[in-house]
Amino acid sequence: DGGITQSPKYLFRKEGQNVTLSCEQNLNHDAMYWYRQDPGQGLRLIYYSQIVNDFQKGDIAEGYSVSREKKESFPLTVTSAQKNPTAFYLCASSSGTGGNNEQFFGPGTRLTVL
Amino acid sequence: DAKTTQPNSMESNEEEPVHLPCNHSTISGTDYIHWYRQLPSQGPEYVIHGLTSNVNNRMASLAIAEDRKSSTLILHRATLRDAAVYYCILRAWNAGNMLTFGGGTRLMVKP
Prior knowledge:
The complex is a heterodimer of chains A (114) and B (111). Chain A is an all-beta fold. Helix content of chain A is 0%, strand content 49%. In chain A, the strands form two sheets. In chain A, strands 2, 4, 5, 6, 9, 10 and 11 form a seven-stranded mixed sheet that branches. A four-stranded antiparallel sheet of chain A has the order 1-3-8-7, with no helix packed on it. In chain A, strand 4 and strand 5 form a beta hairpin. Chain A starts with a strand and ends with a strand. The mean pLDDT of chain A is 92. Chain B has 111 residues and is mainly beta. Chain B has strands at 9-13, 18-23, 31-38, 45-50, 55-56, 61-64, 70-75, 84-92, 105-110. The A-B interface holds A 31, 33, 35, 42-43, 45, 48, 50, 56, 58-59, 88, 90, 92, 97-100, 102-108, 110 and B 30-32, 34, 41-46, 49, 51, 87, 91-104.
């Protein structure tokens, strides 16, 4: 089945540690995205990538980093510089970035900082 | 992306149709109307989108007002599994990068 997978589903981190969230898609989509969702809120864009080896900052990129070495993969690293990292993280992909393209989302990773 | 306005919550009875409204008075001529829904503790799921004409798919129907300043997502027979937050989003034809999610409508379905 085609789709987006994220791992792990739950992640616990001690303060001061970097953690990497995995996102893989087998939809052959060029564009991939990372969003953050806080309780009761909408999604906010962290980073996006329109093509391999290229990515751009979204609205809340500070304290996060990404890479896009393969079309299928777009990992997100939450660094110790992120002041309030506890949140629900969602990865998405789309075949294009125009208004006529829908985004497909993964199941999410819930990160908790202890 | 232009702004949309949705009711905070709605209730429906199981097996009955549900009409979820969305106002988007500042929509431009090239904005697409997208609907997503999010079940508890899950990622958002694409439901439907359209530009000017009404649209139907296996999940729902989208009715777009003639002046395009409002739209309605129609679930023909609500089930308990349809209980979710429904987001109405406008995306320009050259939208670029992201979806801008507002507060959405929390749909509760009663058995």
